[in-house]
Design goal:
The complex is a heterodimer of chains A (about 140) and B (about 140). In chain A, about 30% of the residues lie in helices and about 30% in strands. Chain A is α+β, with helices and mostly antiparallel strands. Chain A has a single domain (about 5-135), classed as Histidine kinase-like ATPase, C-terminal domain (Heat Shock Protein 90). Chain A has a 5-stranded antiparallel β-sheet with strand order 1-2-3-5-4, covered by helices on one side. Chain A starts with a strand and ends with a strand. Chain B has a 5-stranded mixed β-sheet. Mean pLDDT of chain B is about 85; it is low at about 90-95. Classes of the chains: A alpha+beta (about 140), B alpha/beta (about 140). Chains A and B meet through helix 1, helix 2 and helix 3 of A and helix 2, helix 3 and helix 4 of B.
Chain lengths: ~140, ~140
């Protein structure tokens, strides 16, 4: 049975579609329910976009995405070599403000928090950023 | 992503901009640029047909936010100055531009993204094209 899958790419914006396809295929192979698969796709797209935009300053950079089953959940782990940054420390945006008074952007980590069950960050011993998403799935 | 444009005369002239494909960080600027072109060509009432847009991330939210500003005669930050320009802008206008932009048939996943971001109530959302056009 397929229990783990890893994508290693030098990511640019144009690779986001490929990343979404990878997450779809890997999570579906784990028999994750379609609703949870869609949530994982959105979360990983946001995380990868943040890495490319903020980590690599819109330049191509290496991203490793690992999808595996942990009990009744699917875990997605993203690693990148950008300067260390913990996105889980970003405060939530105020989505109650009228649109005209809201700052642009800054929604990525909020979106991730809303669609996954657990979110962890660590800096690896070799200096990489590692963001782990956990999503319960009906397998 | 590609776009379709149709203009109909209702109570006011309404331009229907169809967004076809996924809207993400790779192409959200195209949607802004397309809207800017339409505004410069005279469009003042815009119906965004999202029925063929199965995915939208937070970059798409930036695009929608920019489109609302453009159609309300405000200039969004220039993407050439980078994403930080979007993050830094301090909005202070009290204008309510959403009367100029309405949404048609967003995919459930896209509607959910709008809901999570707290943007679903900013727009009138229609599922019937004729009713949407008549709502302007």
């Amino acid at each position: 049975m397929h229990t783990e899958s890893t994508l290693r790419i030098t990511a640019e914006f144009r690779d986001l579609a490929r990343i979404r396809r990878f997450v779809h295929d890997a999570a579906t192979a784990l028999r994750c329910d379609p609703s949870a698969v869609e949530d994982l796709i959105l979360a990983v797209d946001e995380a990868a976009t943040n890495i490319i935009v903020h980590g690599y300053q819109c330049q191509p950079g290496p991203i490793e995405i690992e999808v595996r089953q942990i009990g009744d959940s699917v875990m997605v782990r993203l690693r990148d070599q950008a300067p260390l940054f913990d996105p889980t420390l970003v405060p939530p945006p105020n989505i109650e403000l009228p649109l005209e008074q809201r700052p642009f952007g800054g929604m990525g980590i909020h979106m991730i928090r809303q669609v996954v069950d657990e979110l962890f960050y660590c800096a690896t011993p070799d200096g990489a950023n590692e963001l782990t998403l956990l999503k319960a799935c009906r397998m | 992503m590609h776009f379709t444009v149709e203009t109909l005369q209702a109570r006011v002239p309404v331009t229907i901009l169809g967004l076809h494909g996924n809207l993400d960080a790779s192409n959200f600027e195209e949607a802004i640029a397309k809207t800017r072109d339409l505004y410069n060509a005279g469009t003042r009432y815009l119906l965004l047909d999202l029925s063929d847009m199965p995915f939208m991330g937070s970059s798409g939210l930036v695009a929608l936010h920019s489109i609302v500003l453009l159609m309300g005669s405000e200039e969004p930050p220039d993407p050439e100055f980078g994403w930080q320009a979007f993050h830094d802008i301090d909005r202070s206008s009290d204008a309510g531009p959403s009367q100029f932009v309405k949404l048609l048939s967003p995919h459930p996943k896209v509607e959910r993204t709008l809901r999570i971001a707290g943007m679903i109530d900013v727009f009138e959302v229609h599922t019937d094209r004729e009713a949407a056009i008549a709502a302007f």
